[in-house]
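Researcher: I'd like a candidate sequence for this fold, 240 residues long. If you have to choose between options at a position, lean toward the conservative one.
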């Protein structure tokens, strides 16, 4: 198929020559797509602003041997300006698109696409605290990738919780009897917040005090770094 069309999120861009860019997209039906956008750095470009990070576009590609070419792009979600205007939202969004790029490839991944679009939309509209949105996104993205954390039952004996020991290697909490040496001790309020972020219970998430949010963020960051190869460089810049 020399020409094809898809919805896509702009993950990142690189300069190419004097006027072009290489754009990395996460598309709804075709996974990651790397394509050349010709002339988009010129002042008179018709769709240069539409191909900035965090934008959601309806884009037409021409299939190439190594890189595809962007033929057309129409805006679906103009989230970039609002996100970039707020540093906390910008750093959270940067961590999200880096995560999406690490967790996806050329294979079809509509769940990851829809999750990322929803998270970016939430950031742009300031629906929730940016740190909470990021942590919820990371937990759900990892769950879609096959690393769903368990905050409800013991990861070894399946005893119903709540439990306040977390083992990274097991991907979840453990009870007092099953906890191995070196298990991280977490407050039960933190466990409750993590479960709420994973399930999308924003009432519980937003009611959590700052101390508990910070504890949850630290565990989410560690869990994400554990599973994502080479870690997430952008997490160190996230404003908490």
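Model: Candidate sequence:
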């Amino acid at each position: 198929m020399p020409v094809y069309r898809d919805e896509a999120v702009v993950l990142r861009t690189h300069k190419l020559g004097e006027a072009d860019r290489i754009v990395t997209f996460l598309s709804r039906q075709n996974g990651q797509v790397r394509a050349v956008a010709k002339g988009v750095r010129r002042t008179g470009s018709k769709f240069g602003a539409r191909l900035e990070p965090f934008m959601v576009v309806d884009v037409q590609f021409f299939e190439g041997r190594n890189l595809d070419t962007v033929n057309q792009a129409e805006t679906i979600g103009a989230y970039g300006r609002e996100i970039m205007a707020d540093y906390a939202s910008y750093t959270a969004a940067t961590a999200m698109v880096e995560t999406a790029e690490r967790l996806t490839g050329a294979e079809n991944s509509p769940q990851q696409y829809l999750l990322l679009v929803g998270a970016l939309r939430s950031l742009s509209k300031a629906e929730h605290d940016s740190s909470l949105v990021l942590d919820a996104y990371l937990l759900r993205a990892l769950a879609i990738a096959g690393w769903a954390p368990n905050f409800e039952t013991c990861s070894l004996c399946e005893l119903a919780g709540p439990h306040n020991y977390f083992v990274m290697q097991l991907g979840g909490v453990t009870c007092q009897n099953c906890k191995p040496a070196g298990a991280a001790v977490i407050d039960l309020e933190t466990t409750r917040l993590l479960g709420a972020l994973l399930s999308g219970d924003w009432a519980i998430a937003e009611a959590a005090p700052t101390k508990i949010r910070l504890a949850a963020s630290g565990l989410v960051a560690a869990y994400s770094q554990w599973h994502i190869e080479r870690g997430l460089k952008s997490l160190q810049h996230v404003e908490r």
